[in-house]
Every structure is written in structure tokens, then in C-alpha cells.
Amino acid sequence: xxxxxxxxxxxxxxxxxxxxxxxxxxxxxxxxxxxxxxxxxxxxxxxxxxxxxxxxxxxxxxxxxxxxxxxxxxxxxxxxxxxxxxxxxxxxxxxxxxxxxxxxxxxxxxxxxxxxxxxxxxxxxxxxxxxxxxxxxxxxxxxxxxxxxxxxxxxxxxxxxxxxxxxxxxxxxxxxxxxxxxxxxxxxxxxxxxxxxxxxxxxxxxxxxxxxxxxxxxxxxxxxxxxxxxxxxxxxxxxxxxxxxxxxxxxxxxxxxxxxxxxxxxxxxxxxxxxxxxxxxxxxxxxxxxxxxxxxxxxxxxxxxxxxxxxxxxxxxxxxxxxxxxxxxxxxxxxxxxxxxxxxxxxxxxxxxxxxxxxxxxxxxxxxxxxxxxxxxxxxxxxxxxxxxxxxxxxxxxxxxxxxxxxxxxxxxxxxxxxxxxxxxxxxxxxxxxxxxxxxxxxxxxxxxxxxxxxxxxxxxxxxxxxxxxxxxxxxxxxxxxxxxxxxxxxxxxxxxxxxxxxxxxxxxxxxxxxxxxxxxxxxxxxxxxxxxxxxxxxxxxxxxxxxxxxxxxxxxxxxxxxxxxxxxxxxxxxxxxxxxxxxxxxxxxxxxxxxxxxxxxxxxxxxxxxxxxxxxxxxxxxxxxxxxxxxxxxxxxxxxxxxx
Length: 645
Prior knowledge:
26 helices, three-stranded antiparallel sheet, single chain, mainly alpha
């Protein structure tokens, strides 16, 4: 058979799929977000950089029509907010370019603040709001912004920051969780320049006298560059930690005497067990010179957890959902980003093997104590879990080998205290049964066809790993099918599922698998092809390549469809932001009047019935548009952030 000739419909949208960054799709959206957050001047500088690309300050002033002083003022704001990056060469002027990812993250600030507030309390949410407003800040400047003192005054409210000790305690928890990170000099450099420096360094060290020919030599060169980039990143992180003190930026408060060492306590809720708000100031302080910022990559890891839980909740009971949530939370502590771009994996299997693992003993420490795991299992499963027999005392440890009144769980400091030795055996039996129930829920997830979790061994009552790469593809496929179902219908979604599962098929084969006639699916396949969802490949039977002697194969390319859907989502979000601005302009005079200090909380006195009704309609419209914007951002999370772009 002659070599196949691939004919793919040439759409203008499809031609832009290989552009990186997607300038035409994102520049308008990011410019609108910057204008709403930081004003006209900053948005004009950002828009010029977005449209013209990399520029010096002199060229930027010429392209934007602004004065050099205005350009410098705009660049200061953009650099402070990580919306612009810069690179200075030895013999060249400093060049600036936009940071697309951080500019887009402006639309996600409220969602991240809500996530942090749910996990760590209202005080942590306030800190994240300040960091979004400032871009990055010294810890000492944050304390000045709160106007805090070293002493607490009066009766404090829960989850509020009213002293320096409380602020440092919240910042320490956010740093330990990875939601915020310390600022490095490398964060201000464009990735292309860092890549070029790494390539130049590797070239002068090992490849200067040899030419890079052949796929093997090029692969070795690429691996060396990735290793160098990873080394530079790790060295920059260690340098930041060393500059802020030996203990990762922390300093211990002075004490009057050498007391006994504090035992490790498990964190549940907003404060450790048996620790009141008054004890927060006894925690270690951070160096005031430490500069911190929001870690967008770690926040994406937390959002990925909730996306997976939304999928699991459609099939499994709440108890299995709680067990899976505990497992993902345990893995989240070992995951700094959804996908490390500096890691060069051979294939999906190699990437899966490098994923972090956890054990049943570690994951169950994240389970909420109110969850009854027995309710989510059938009676046959419950009866299979032993309630008596030989206990695995290797899973526990005691402060005193002869006294088991204080048994501690090996993991995150889970403590089980017992008042009498007569109840120790029953308590250990109950704990062993709880571990068995937890493991049963994870086994149910592992046996599912989508493979939500994989069991690797029996270490720690079971070692587990989640194939995030495979589950990300599952989330992407669900988003694509949701789009197809909403735009075309359920039958079109069935055709996409058939092509995704079976690969390249002829029209009659698609009709047979989908249990439809060829006449019914012909127009459906054409509409999906015109929308860019599926593609058509032409395979000639001979060298003549006559149309009536060719085989036409329909196929579905998930990666290509993912990028197409991502760019369409950017356009949709741009229209939503524009619509919010337009609707707000119509009611601007009412908004200004309602925000006056004498009108706030006295609307019925100063606003007429018609004005109050118009203001209510505007607020309803704004809420609906913002809700839709947040939903579109969830799609971007699935299609871009979870994918590692």
C-alpha cells in the first residue's frame, strides 16, 4: 500500500495551536484583567509588551507612545506583581517581556483565597489577599501593614491575626504547605533566557569541541540541559533558605531556661490538638527579611485534588470519597507542582514510576475522625476484616517500651492515649479494624476501570500511588465530551467516545460500533470535523490516489482537541470580562452612589425603589457572570495547569 496522505482541514484556529505562548488568544484577556486590577497605565504597558513581544524600555516607550517616566512607573508595577519579567545581558540593555501565566492568575485570586481560608482559617485568607495585592512582600512589611505588635491586646477572635506571633504562625503554616514560597532571583528571569544560559553552559563544558549529530547525541544534550536547569533551580532555593537563616528562614524565640523538648502534635483544623490561640506566639518566628509570594503551582495541585474528588463522588459513597481525599492530601504534601517541566521522562510508564507514593498508615492520619468507614462497605466486606487475631505492633511505637499507655502512630504524630491497660487490647483491635476498612476503600478505588489509585506493595499496611498523568487525560476527555454534548448532543458525544476508544475507523465501522446507520452519522461526523473535534485521514489504495479508490479514516486527537478547546475557553472568558465591564458601565452612577459612606447600610433611606431594584439587578447579573467566569477557569485548570503547561 502506498504511503498514506493525511488531509486535515485547514482552519485559522488550528494554525495557531503551535504558537507558544498563545499570544492572540490570551493577550486581550490578560490586558483586561491587568486594567481592572492595576489601572490604565499598567495595562497599556502590558498590552504593548504583549503585542510587540520582547522590548527594551526605550523601544517600549516608542511603541506605546508613553514617556520614559510613565514606562518606568508601569514596569515597576508589573515587575512587583510578576506580570513582567526582565533579563539584563552584560553588554546589552535590559529587555522586558510579559509573564502570561501570572497575568492570567489574576482571575483566580479569589478562588485561591477561598481555598486557603477553608484549609487554614480566615487569617490565612487575609494574608493571601494581601500577597495578591502586593505581588510579593517582606514578612516585616506584612506585619507593618497589619499594624501588629508583639503583644496581644484584649480578647481575640478565632481565625484572626492580631499579633506578630499569630502572623508568623500563619505564614509558617502556609510556607510548610507550599501555598506561598520564598522569592528567588530566578523568578524574575524569562524561561527562554534561562534555557539559553543552560544550553550555553553545557555547550562550553562538554560539547564545544564536538558536533551534536544524530538522535542519540541530541538526546544526551537535551538531558544534560534539563539536569542543569533543575540544578540551578534547586541551588536557587537553597540559597534563599541559607540567606534567611539555617532553619529555612525561621528563628527561635529566646527562652529563659532549657525546658524539655516539645512533642510533635498532629494538626487538625486550624490549630494543633490541645493548643489554644494563646499558644501560637510560642511558635518559632520567621526572619523579617524573608520575601514571600503566592505559589501558583502548588495551588494548582490543591485544585487538582478537588477535581478528582468531583469525579469520584459520582460513583462512590461518601466514605470512599473521604478515604480518597485523605490519600490525595497525603500525596499533596510530597508534590510541589502538577508536572515538573525539568524532568525528561522516557514514556508514561517512566513518569508514573517517578510519582510520589504514600502508605495506608500515613494517609489515614488525614482522615477526619467523624467518618464512619464501615457505612460505605457491604456487610460481606465488613465481615472479611478481622476483628481479632495477631496485631501488627510494628505499626505503633511507644515512649516507654514497658508502658503502652501512650501509643503513638508512626506518621504525622497521631496519638492514642489510654487510661488503663485493660482497654489497650480492644483499642488496638479497633484501630487495626479501622486500618482494614480504610484499605478496603482504597482497594475499591484501585479496582475501578479508571484506575484512581494503584497499590504497589504491603509496606505500611499498603503502599499506594496515583497515576496523575492518566487521570489528567480522563479529566480532559470528560471536559471535551461535556462540550460536545452541550454544543451538538449526546449522539455526537457517543461518536467521539467510539473514536477515542477504538482509534482510526472507517465510516461503516463507526456506524457499527455506535449502533447507528451510516446515513445518520455522516452529517454528525461532518459537523464534528468542521468544529475541529475529529479529523479525517485519507489512505490511498494505489499510487493513482483517485478519491473513489481511497480509504477515509476518522480519528480523534485528544491533545489537539484539548488545545483547541483551551483557546476557545480563553475567548469565552474575554467576552465575559468585557460583558461585566459593559454591564457595570450602565449602572456606574448607581454603584458610585451606593458606595458613598453616607449611603452604605442606609440604602432604603437614600435610594429610591427604582434605584434599589436596578442595583439589585446589576448585582444579580454580576454574580451570574462571575460564576460563569469561575467555571471557565475550572476548564483552564483541567486543560492547561493539570497538564503541566
